[in-house]
Amino acid sequence: MTETHGGVAMMSRVGFSVRLIAVFAFAMGVAGAPARAADKVLMMPVDAALATTDAKAALDGSVSFYFGDTPHPKVVESFGEFVSNKKTNAFAKSDRETCQRVVLSNFITFQERAKQLGGNAVINIRSYFRSNEVKSDTQYECHVGFLMSGVALKGEVVKLAD
Q1: Which sign does the torsion angle of CA 139, 143, 144, 147 carry?
Q2: In this structure, which of 10, 99, 126, 156 has its CB flanked by the most CB atoms within 10 Å?
Q3: What's residue 12's pLDDT?
Q4: How far apart are CA 39 and CA 95, in angstroms?
Q5: 145 vs 24 pLDDT, higher one
Q6: How far apart are CA 18 and CA 23, in angstroms?
């Protein structure tokens, strides 16, 4: 519905409001659709994440990481199991880049926890997204969405024999 005001056709406030709501609803539907459609679960290589420049800079080597059933020296002391659940911005990043970034955040958390408790390793590390365990000696589970990526890991902080 339009009215003429001073020779200029103007849309009524009601008509404008209805159109604005419709445009907003459409935009939210479109914006929400890619987030759902882009959600995927990837199994990513642990070694590649630990080999990045960022990982080499952030991890000081005082704590070793053993995924799944990877053999390790004898456990001298156990400090318990811990979960690290991290998220990172995935927008405009490759799956590889965002997964490596978020798993590094988990490694840093494990390193800090182990050092705080007197440990020198985290063993039996497995993916633990939404409390669902996935065990692998060589890979971790990464959940990639349109805007966010997430990795959750569970592992046992220990002191290993030299």
Answers
A1: negative
A2: 99
A3: 52
A4: 11
A5: 145
A6: 9
Residue indicated by tokens 């995924």: 67
- Model confidence at 33: pLDDT above 80: no
Residue 130, sorted as left (phi over 0), alpha (psi -120 to 50) or beta, turns out to be: left
Token reading at 55: 């990982």
What are the C-alpha distances in Å from 20 to residues 17, 25, 103? 5, 9, 42
* C-alpha distances in Å from residue 127, one per residue of 27, 31, 80, 156: 35, 29, 17, 13
Locate 145 and state its tokens.
Answer: 């969405």
Half-sphere exposure of 141 (CA within 13 A, CB side): 21
What the block records as the tokens of 59 is 């991890």
* Among 4, 7, 120, CA closest to 66: 120
Select from 159, 154, 17 the least CA-distant residue to 74.
159
Which residue shows structure tokens 């007197």?
Answer: 118
- pTM listed for this prediction: 0.76
